[in-house]
Amino acid sequence: LPTTVYRGKRDFDRLLIKGGRIVNDDQSFHADIYMEDGLIKQIGDNLIVPGGVKTIEANGKMVIPGGIDIHTHFQMPYRGTTTVDDFNQGSKAALAGGTTMIVDHVIPEPGTSLMEAYDQWRQWADEKTCCDYSLHVDITHWNDSVKQEVDNLIKEKGVNSFHVYMAYKDYYQMSNSELYEVFTFLAERGGIAQVHAENGEIIAEEQARMLQMGITGPEGHVLSRPEELEAEAVFRAITIASQTNCPLYVTRVMSKSAADIISQARKKGNVVFGEPITASLGTDGTHYWSKNWAKAASFVTSPPLSPDPTTPDYLNTLLSSGDLSVTGSAHCTFSVAQKAIGKDDFTQIPEGVNGVEERMALIWDKAVTTGKMDENMFVAVTSTNAAKILNLYPRKGRIAVGSDADLVIWDTDSIRTITAKTHNSAAEYNVFEGMELRGAPLVVICQGKIVLEDGNLHATSGVGRFIPCSPFPDFAYKRVKARKQLAVLRAVPRGMYDGPVSEFSMSRGGTPSASARTSPTKQPVRNLHQSGFSLAGPPTPDDVPIRPAGRRIVVPPGGRSNITSLS
Amino acid sequence: MSTAGEVPAFFKSMGSDSPARPRQKFCGMFCPVEGSSDSKTLDFDALSACRGKSDGRVIDRQTDISQPRKVEIRESTGKEALQNLDDKRSDRLLIKGAKIVNDDQSFCADIYMEDGVIKQIGENLIVPGGVKTIDAHGGMLMPGGIDVHTRFQMPDRGMTAADDFYQGTKAALAGGTTMIIDHVIPEPGISLISAFEQWREWADSKSCCDYSLHVDITEWHKGIQEEMETLVKDHGVNSFLVYLAYKDIFQLTDSQVYEVFSVIRDLGAIAQVHAENGDIVAEEQRRILEQGITGPEGHVLSRPEEVEAEAVNRSVTVANQTNCPLYVTKVMSKSAADVIAQARKKGTVVYGEPITASLGTDGSHYWSKNWAKAAAYVTSPPLSPDPTTPDYLNSLLSCGDLQVTGSAHCPFNTAQRAVGKDDFSLIPEGVNGTEERMSIIWDKCVVTGKMDENQFVAVTSTNAAKIFNLYPRKGRIAVGSDADLVLWDPDLTKIISAKSHNSTVEYNIFEGTEVRGGPLVVISQGKIVLEEGNLHATEGSGRYVARKPFPDYVYKRIKARSRLAELRGVPRGLYDGPVCEVSVTPKTMTPASSAKTSPAKQPNQPVRNLHQSGFSLSGAQIDDNVPRRNTQRIVAPPGGRANITSLG
């Protein structure tokens, strides 16, 4: 366990929770918890604690590790405006919902420095965040200097997850070759490859078609992004990740078919994690057809919510069975006036929905009260798994001695109705408006301090610390490392071919060359054939070194060539 | 069809010379046959009598199974025979006592052919004198095979595939295949039409059996679209192949594929796809060469089957999106076949074509110590190193998840292969298989009980004819169909070997495989081309068979779906609240994560960028001049599916 004591920006409280039922992802048990300096110091019965300690009587209620929202977009700049929830507003909403840590996405403009963008985000977040945070960095373009920056971010800046886009054609979108290179690089450096999975090329075509047909409202958004396109991109990302032996993390799983592909891949042994978000677990895409433009526009996010109303239930089931691993909110809210940028063209509507505050309660209501999952699984999908993927476990995501004192006392019976009138976000619409949810945080403790009590939020702007994530998280990389050792390919030792060789032309100017499948990048290395060979005599074998005969064939004839596929 | 005019004349006398009962006519089944007129069909009632009788015959036949089956070919005597020889174009042929096997049923009947067309089917036919008669003794008579995928005489970097149209079609006939469909591969930059004409010229002068042509789309621009239209309308092409592999040479991007598929759907053609992710293949090739793996095993290591499955999945998605029928060529791996099977379950119009090689052998030979042998197996997608693959693909073929079989016959001789002796990525690709196709499938599927003889006909001939709109002229034994027939001997055993095969290459990838089942007699265009093991193929006798667009088998569903798939906007009052000011040039600004317009749509933007300046945040809007769309119906209702082509 990490034993470093973080010197905080202020005095930490001493806190004792008595009579709670501690719920971790593996088991639940009754014990008292004593916290000091933002850390859990003791767990057990009849603890001996110093005087002057504030005591909370839990009365047998559940005490769970604070939630980790692994996907937020607070204070995100968008074409000169900024999302309405900044790091203060957003992290306040998070705390109100029982989430004590958020992981935000840094989005560098294509062509600009990753490092500068990272510093900018750090500055914004350090000033305003009310809870601990960490950062993912989005890779929006790819070249050698970006590669260098990624390397620095991993080694020095505590970032271990990088996000790439398969959508947003000609803007953020990466080609398959670039994805291959990014994934290869991340696999070497121990990073997690996150992917926004949608086929951007097809979307661009479909958007053009929709607009031509005169469909300009928010329904065009979902019509131009059918769930197949999401599933296709997920499939492709998994293929590339498996090829490069890189752990994959699919952000925003919004549809049944995308989730199915992830669970199939996991069955085959791929290291892939799926992240459904609050919106996809709680509501569906029928609202895109709402007659109220502003309401319809408030649901716009990518990939879109599925118009199939059985989707949330299905995703909750897969989350419960472990096929989907973590939950985020992708909280990225815009005001109606901002959404109205796209009032005559759905492609211009800024994307994003709320969900950071509702996430925990919604999953409790949809998955635990319905009997799909138990309280331990609930802790796993809202907190522990995220901590493991980010390599923050057991500092975060577990109630144990030495872990951070980020705790939630959860009330399983309280019932709340979600509405924009009472929520902590600054947005005018809430995509879960009117939904009645059972289960809510009673007390939230963040960094050892009570921030929510009796319905009152005492969040302090700027107390949030950046939590660095180290590379090679065991949760993802143990398997990857083992496979790397196995996946060494060897050539077959053969005598040299010494028969006649046909003449052929390297340039494709002449007749059609059907099977010329070399990419031009390789040609300079290999074009010995072009001139040096004669048709007549057998080439002297002395010119060419004969390959060592002692090589072992690791991949035997009839065996599998791809070691990462276990099927 | 050369006999188009004569067929109706022949049928004028029908009823008088039909002995049992006049064949009753119902419209339908055969209407699409060119020139076969609208009032002909099999009279199943008349034939059922024969079928009833055949029950008795089965026992008879079983008795003589012990004896070697023999076929007698009798020539009529004297003058008539000579007349027959004189007039080569009107071979008259009668096959007696055959069990006719179509894809839907088998029945016993005699069959009379004239002028390359089947004229009568039934018992006790009244036929003119001077007819050559084949006594089938109850042997199976089936429609000649159609090899949907060949690449005879294919140019590759100054070389040419070892089998030209003459050698290739001879090999096809020897194996019971009476029609081939070859691929035209225009070099990028060369016009599709001129490439097509080049292939026509090669094939017309050399082909020994009927043929047709697929055209490959190797690049994409406006001119290609026009040429495709011409090919469909004037040249009888209804299938186009796109490549997802061969990066920087033939490979098209997803957007291009989307556009090609849209065009293909509008033209009523079939979109074929070579499914492999070329980007990943290129990266893997480089990685494997860097590791010092240069032999043929590098070929399969750099093209793992996942990469094939991924591309199949992607093309299915694009095809669904564009509502275009899809045909996946060369299904080589289990996972690719699974993706096709799943897509079909969801309702996608997709067809999968395993080839002789993937049904008959596996990729373990890439590790052979004999370089030349290992190189002979190089094809793309590669044969799977998983030895259970052929059995699995045969099972899917039998249950209908895969529909047609080709051979992708494109062999190169060893000297040509040796171009890549130091770099596997330069080895010319292609395997043999046109001659072995029918026997391999019979041996692997029918002998093992995976499929029956009717399904065998379906996958070797009928389905291909239906998909490519040749049915029932090809792919069926019926009155008015072409006289392309095979008398099949299920007990014939043969060991495949490069020594005895009809191809010109030194290696046969099925070397040493013992197969049961083979053609006894092959009839192409009404003429006997194979009997008693002797091949009498005539160079240049093959005709080009034009194919019409919008094959029913494929397009009935597509048409229905395009009618349903109209999307409508939601009629709303106009939004009249405040609108944020926005910068038009997001690229120079701070990150704009959600700018999801692509430049491809930039032309649309001028229509839409009213916001840029004209709007005031507070007051009245300029929406009065925008027509309201109040009367539009919402076809895709809330809660319903947005994508009508997905039935899942």
TrEMBL record, chain A:
GO CC aspect terms: cytosol; growth cone
Keywords in alphabetical order: Cell projection, Cytoplasm
The Amidohydrolase-related domain, residue ranges: 62-451
Stretches the record annotates as Disordered: 503-567
Bias type Polar residues, positions: 504-533
Biological-process GO terms, alphabetical: actin crosslink formation
Main location: other
GO molecular function, one term: hydrolase activity, acting on carbon-nitrogen (but not peptide) bonds, in cyclic amides
InterPro entries (UniProt xref): Amidohydro-rel (IPR006680), Hydantoinase/dihydroPyrase (IPR011778), Metal-dep_hydrolase_composite (IPR011059), Metal_Hydrolase (IPR032466), Metallo-dep_Hydrolases_sf (IPR050378)
Localization per Swiss-Prot or TrEMBL: Cell projection, Growth cone; Cytoplasm
NCBIfam families: D-hydantoinase
Role summary: Necessary for signaling by class 3 semaphorins and subsequent remodeling of the cytoskeleton. Plays a role in axon guidance, neuronal growth cone collapse and cell migration.
Family named by the database record: Belongs to the metallo-dependent hydrolases superfamily. Hydantoinase/dihydropyrimidinase family.
Protein name: Amidohydrolase-related domain-containing protein
Automatic annotation (TrEMBL), chain B:
Keywords noted in UniProt: Cytoplasm
GO MF annotations, alphabetized: hydrolase activity, acting on carbon-nitrogen (but not peptide) bonds, in cyclic amides
Subcellular location: Cytoplasm
Region of interest: Disordered: 1-22, 588-648
Polar residues: compositionally biased ranges: 588-619
Annotated CDD domains: D-HYD
GO cellular component, one term: cytosol
Family as reported in the entry's similarity comment: Belongs to the metallo-dependent hydrolases superfamily. Hydantoinase/dihydropyrimidinase family.
Protein name per Swiss-Prot or TrEMBL: Amidohydrolase-related domain-containing protein
Biological source species: Amphiprion ocellaris
